[in-house]
Write a structure and sequence with these properties.
Blueprint lengths: L2 H21 L6 H23 L4 H21 L4 H17 L6 E4 L6 E11 L5 E11 L2 E11 L5 E3 L2
Helix pairs in contact: 1-2, 1-3, 2-3
């Protein structure tokens, strides 16, 4: 598979998968969180992979995105709990809403030791006047650090929606 396709899928898929996996962690037992993370990650990875590939490479990019998403979603989903999700979501919202470009916002769940960061790297106004921010994100679970990069745009209700 073309390295640029894998790089493109990884660049887009990882933050979406991380955030999607956080949402899949609502179940209280280990197996449900892992399975939910894998399912959400696989679906999002496949969707994003389909957007990257073109022509005969589209099927390969979709498959690669789905596999990568399942692996990342499963690993993240098996470990993050509801409190981790809350810390991550609050930190992400605060960073996107108020942090200057380059300032890193951090979260840590003292009960699990899981942690993460969100760093806005660029702010711009989209064509329709909507404010958007590119950001880098990390999640640390069990000493393993996962990195992501994405873009979120501010919605009329004040929430931030990840757009890629």
């Amino acid at each position: 598979m073309n390295r640029s396709i894998v790089k493109s899928v990884s660049r887009v898929a990882i933050p979406v998968i991380l955030i999607g996996s956080l949402g899949a962690c609502a179940g209280s037992d280990y197996g449900n969180k892992q399975l939910g993370g894998a399912a959400v990650g696989g679906a999002l990875g496949g969707l994003l992979g389909s957007k990257v590939g073109g022509g005969s490479g589209q099927l390969a990019a979709t498959a690669a995105g789905a596999v990568l998403g399942m692996m990342l979603g499963s690993e993240t989903g098996k470990s993050l709990d509801r409190a981790d999700r809350a810390y991550a979501a609050q930190t992400q919202h605060a960073a996107l809403e108020t942090a200057p470009v380059g300032a890193t916002a951090r979260w840590v769940n003292p009960d699990t030791g899981h942690s993460g960061t969100v760093t806005p790297v660029r702010t711009y106004q989209a064509g329709g006047g909507q404010y958007c921010r590119e950001y880098q994100q990390t999640v640390v679970v069990g000493g393993r650090e996962q990195h992501g990069y994405g873009t979120a745009c501010r919605q009329p209700d004040g929430s931030w929606q990840v757009v890629n």
